[in-house]
Amino acid sequence: MAPSLSEFHKELSSLTTMNQTTAKAAIARDAVLTKPAGSLGELETLATWLSGWQGKHPPSCDRPQIVVFAGNHGVCDQGISAFPQEVTVQMVANFEHGGAAINQLALAFGASFSVQALELENPTADFTQAPAMSEAECAEALSAGWNSIDKGTDILVVGEMGIGNTTVAAALSAALMGGTGADWAGPGTGVSAEGINRKAAVIDAGLSRHESVLDDPLRILQCLGGREIAAMAGAILSARQKHIPVLLDGFVATAAAAVLFKANEQALDHCYAGHVSAEPGHKKLLQAMNKEPLLSLGMRLGEGSGAALALAIVKGAVATHTGMASFADAGVSAEKPD
Ligand SMILES: Cc1cc2ncn([C@H]3O[C@H](COP(=O)(O)O)[C@@H](O)[C@H]3O)c2cc1C
Ligand SMILES: O=C(O)c1cccnc1
């Protein structure tokens, strides 16, 4: 049977929850490791978060999976990117040959990598003219993401490639969080100030055309989104139901996640923000969802690259949490009472 949006609505209303027993086991172990209490800062929070969402203690970061989804956007007809649309399919070939930034980051941090091209020869409709996708197309893209997670994956990074998709992410952000095109449009691949104004006007046109669906996040995704963005949303939701924590990448990946957040404010509790992108809308979008980024490196690439770098931090959290000695085992004196 063809997938439908109602199945994803159903998943969003029956989310798995964090395992309190394994989260507590992590907190208890943390308390006896040979360091002053709290001295590993965010690494301690990460170890507990991983344990809780993986539902196991000790937690692991041995089988990270990075999946990049690629899609093309009809809204490119409005002249909203510094690059031509054919770069999407050219970059897919580059990913397949190992030549993109994300290939090198996957290698550097021992992650598996795959790319899924989603009907690149058939771009979504220009959202200023029509819904970007039919309901069936949107559900199909969500399903592609839902089915993309490998057996044994213990942490997931989703990334994207799609010329024009910072305009799409900004339109989604405005529709989901409020505001106008000017509040969310940014340079993307490097458009001029005039280009940013054009992006803002295109987004405003999309918002007014699809005004009637703005109270339903999955309809917003269908009307203003794109295939790679729907696939990222499907993968993030699938990871939740499979007890796999997720690292969020930049503005575009976070806009996909924001669809889930607006449908259910608990839907991203299994997600950590890997980094904050230089694309200006990203910081605002993270703030709207109460997410603190792990890294801030001025990156603005997408492809999952910022989240892939954050794998190094998560690996550090797991290594210290699992490998350190306890005060008792190491014969180190514990803190004196006051
Ligand atoms: C060579 C190249 C590699 C990329 N890798 C990611 N993106 C990023 O830039 C695009 C979004 O920016 P805009 O909305 O301005 O088109 C997306 O494909 C995103 O993944 C790239 C862009 C280019 C040109
Ligand atoms: O932050 C991102 O996801 C981003 C920024 C610029 C271009 N592409 C993606």
From TrEMBL:
The active site is at 303 (proton acceptor). It holds the Pfam family DBI_PRT. Pathway: Nucleoside biosynthesis; alpha-ribazole biosynthesis; alpha-ribazole from 5,6-dimethylbenzimidazole: step 1/2. Gene3D superfamilies: 1.10.1610.10, 3.40.50.10210. Keywords: Cobalamin biosynthesis, Glycosyltransferase, Transferase. The keyword Transferase applies. It catalyses: 5,6-dimethylbenzimidazole + nicotinate beta-D-ribonucleotide = alpha-ribazole 5'-phosphate + nicotinate + H(+). GO terms for molecular function: nicotinate-nucleotide-dimethylbenzimidazole phosphoribosyltransferase activity. Coiled coil: none annotated. The keyword tRNA-binding does not apply. It comes from the Bacteria. Its EC number is 2.4.2.21. Catalyzes the synthesis of alpha-ribazole-5'-phosphate from nicotinate mononucleotide (NAMN) and 5,6-dimethylbenzimidazole (DMB). Belongs to the CobT family. PANTHER family: NICOTINATE-NUCLEOTIDE--DIMETHYLBENZIMIDAZOLE PHOSPHORIBOSYLTRANSFERASE. This is Nicotinate-nucleotide--dimethylbenzimidazole phosphoribosyltransferase. The lineage of its organism: Bacteria, Pseudomonadati, Pseudomonadota, Alphaproteobacteria, Sneathiellales. The gene is cobT.
